[in-house]
Amino acid sequence: MTTHPLEPVTFGELPLRIEDVLALANRQAQATLQDDTDYRQRIAKGAQFLDSLLDKEGVIYGVTTGYGDSCVVAVPLQHVEALPRHLYTFHGCGLGKLLDAQATRAVLAARLQSLCHGVSGVRVELLERLHAFLEFDVLPLIPEEGSVGASGDLTPLSYVAATLSGEREVMFRGERRTACEVHRELGWAPLVLRPKEALALMNGTAVMTGLACLAFARADYLLQLATRITAMNVVALQGNPEHFDERLFAAKPHPGQMQVAAWLRKDLAIDAPTAPLHRLQDRYSLRCAPHVLGVLADSLNWLRSFIEIELNSANDNPIIDADAERVLHGGHFYGGHIAFAMDSLKTLVANVADLLDRQLALLVDVRYNHGLPSNLSGAPADRAMINHGFKAVQIGASAWTAEALKNTMPASVFSRSTECHNQDKVSMGTIAARDAIRVLELTEQVAAAALLAANQGVWLRAQAEDARPLPPALAAMHEALAKDFPPIIEDRALEGELRLCLQRIAEQHWRLHA
């Protein structure tokens, strides 16, 4: 049974934060739906207004017309009820890998939050069923490829609309099942989508926004982890902690840069007595770490703003203003802000990979590591010639870094005119978000390698007769790592340990600076 250690997340009139989506995606919080009478009446009013327009035979895009460039094609009233099913049916052409469970929950949360604004013309029953999908963990199988990010995430979100209607497949209780079977097992009647409801579900930015929430959370933790790894490498390489002096950063006061320097001072206990300095200036991957990581730290605030405004927006078309009895045709499905945020994030994160890769290169090289053994091998002298420690790990980290850097090409500038030139300028936001997730995966692999190597370097320094005690924060980290990752004395295959380290990173296992 799933436990919910965090406070429930309520969908309704109040805004959500990225952390709320993350808690739902990780099944750490229960989803609830605002249920007071006034709110339910406000949601219902939009659907009722649409019904009244149908009675008057009004022209409403996607309700009494075809979609996209077919908006000039009138749909007779006798076919209006069939239009929603046709919309999600012909969009059932997604390819690529399926979104994982965490990402799918984030997508469901993002779509539900958008529809809860009450300007999409959907029934309360649709909100309740979307909420039930989250509550009972009924996860549509959503192919991740096929969206150009305007008109929203049409193709991937068609799998949400179809499964709500009892079609296609879902993951339920660890098994791949037909949506129809799961509805029957739970005692639900599949929804018959009303006019505008399929469009409201599909014509929005929920896939890119859900992925963006997950990417943000991973990047935030990675920033803290990269700072901790840097501090460990300062110790392992006998670096100069004065590079992080508070007075130095007062002269160039970027807040994120100052924050990273403060974290490093705390990790290194910089105010405590230090060993005599070995050099005035370390190489840039140590000395300039706050300047590299600080850009990500400073960017997280505006990235959060872009993502959370999108998350808490009504982003389909048309917008239904039931109070003023107006149908407003626009382009809120355009995911430009998420596209730019994710293109920016993947560049920021790839720079973290590059920084850690350079630090690792220093650690393994006897020309630059200030007396550590070649490739950080802990083998005794009589076996040193056949042991190679972290040699291959450093090669792997370099490969992962190169791939991360390659994937920083911005997706948002590759707009393609589609759908008979109706969608002639599109955001590519979902591709940008997928790219950002991939760059994060690669950078976390670099971080895992760098963390294990830094820990080995710290252990090797501790073997010296004149070794100084580790600062408290680093001593605690070193002790925690030792439980899973013993020192490398004789060569061993490290894939299993790297994968375990990646698991620990995904779980945000170590309490760091936040």
From TrEMBL:
GO terms for biological process: secondary metabolite biosynthetic process. The keyword Lyase applies. It comes from the Bacteria. Keywords: Lyase. It catalyses: L-tyrosine = (E)-4-coumarate + NH4(+). Its EC number is 4.3.1.23. GO terms for molecular function: tyrosine ammonia-lyase activity. InterPro entries: Aromatic_Lyase (IPR001106), Fumarase/histidase_N (IPR024083), L-Aspartase-like (IPR008948), Phe/His_NH3-lyase_AS (IPR022313). Pfam families: Lyase_aromatic. PANTHER family: HISTIDINE AMMONIA-LYASE. This is tyrosine ammonia-lyase. It comes from Pseudomonas karstica. The lineage of its organism: Bacteria, Pseudomonadati, Pseudomonadota, Gammaproteobacteria, Pseudomonadales.
